[in-house]
What does this fold into?
Amino acid sequence: MSTPCQHKLPRLKALPSYIRPLTPAVLRIQPRQFHCCRVKMSSEMTHVFTKNACPPAGPYSQAIKAAGQVWVAGQIPADTTGKLVEGSIADKTKQCCENIKAILEEAGSGMSKVVRAGVFLSDMKHFAEMNGVYEQYFTHKPARTCVAVRELPKGVDVEIEAIALQ
It folds into this structure.
């Protein structure tokens, strides 16, 4: 829960009488109440690895747990051996989501706890087909960015990353 902030904002001084507004309208600005949140932050980071998802293709972790969150690295459509999945964008998106699901479960989280996702497509013509599968996995509609990029690792057409609560 947030509590009202104890910081006081300076009050604006009244304008001199010789300064008149351009319109006769009087603006009434309602004071805003700002809230401060106390969040326990930890500098500890834990690497997450599961054999139930695509192994990292480079010097990075499948995910990192830190500060009550799970940061899942971008997942490409590859199986548990690292072999790329063939087929439609729907098939490839499904594999990306299955990888994310397995990693989150290993981290003690789950798909329903994802607060943000990032989708990278090789071409925006794949947007609708990707969305058809994506919405089956992310039914709670987390915040998301979807962009088309020039090239993705291993020449894949889709990559998905996620941030979830623990």
